[in-house]
Amino acid sequence: MFKTYELGKLYFQFLRMNKIGPIIELAPTQEVDFPFRVGRCAILRLPLTTRALAIGIWTGTEPDEDSAMLRALQAHMEHALSDDGTLLDRFQRPNRITADPDSERPQADAE
């Protein structure tokens, strides 16, 4: 988790992002730990790098952890999937891990 710096209702975070994608992106923020704050931010990525700065404002709170988690998952899915439900190009799928019956250690799928 990236450290959040705060100044009143404003917050700032330094992030790592994929080099492919927009230079400026608007996104929701949802804390999944108390106080479960909700916010909106602009993410500014330095061109040709993976470094980015998120600048946002807290706009409210969720009443409990379950509500915060549900909202966080919904926000992520809205920004990760296209209208037809496929993963957007700027996101990469992690390698799936499967268990090899002859080994004690899980193996990554070959694709």
Layout: helices, strands, pairs:
Blueprint: E1 4-7, E2 10-16, E3 24-30, E4 37-45, E5 51-61, H1 65-80, E6 97-99, E7 106-108
Antiparallel strand pairs: 1-2, 2-5, 3-4, 4-5, 6-7
Question: What's this entry about, in short?
Answer:
By secondary structure, this protein is mainly beta. It is built from 1 helix and 7 strands, in the order E-E-E-E-E-H-E-E.
Tags for this model:
111 residues, mainly beta
Descriptive account of the structure:
The protein is mostly beta strands. 14% of the residues lie in helices and 40% in strands. The protein has one helix at residues 65-80, and strands at 4-7, 10-16, 24-30, 37-45, 51-61, 97-99, 106-108. The strands form two sheets. The protein has a five-stranded antiparallel beta sheet. The chain has a two-stranded antiparallel ribbon with strand order 6-7. Strand 1 (4-7) and strand 2 (10-16) form a beta hairpin. The longest helix is centred in the middle third of the chain and has 16 residues, at 65-80. The chain is flat, with a radius of gyration of 17 Å. The model has no long low-confidence stretch (mean pLDDT 79).
Mean of residue pLDDT values? 79
- What proportion of the residues is helical, as a percent range? 10-25%
What share of residues are in beta strands? 35-45%
Low-confidence stretches: none
Number of DSSP helices? 1
Class inferred from helices and paired strands: mainly beta
Q: Could you spell the SSE succession in H and E letters?
A: EEEEEHEE
Radius of gyration: 17 Å
Identify the strand order in the major beta sheet: 1-2-5-4-3
- Give the CA-CA distance, first to last residue: 29 Å
Shape: flat
Described by strand count, sense and barrel closure, the largest sheet is: 5 strands, antiparallel
Number-wise, the strands total 7
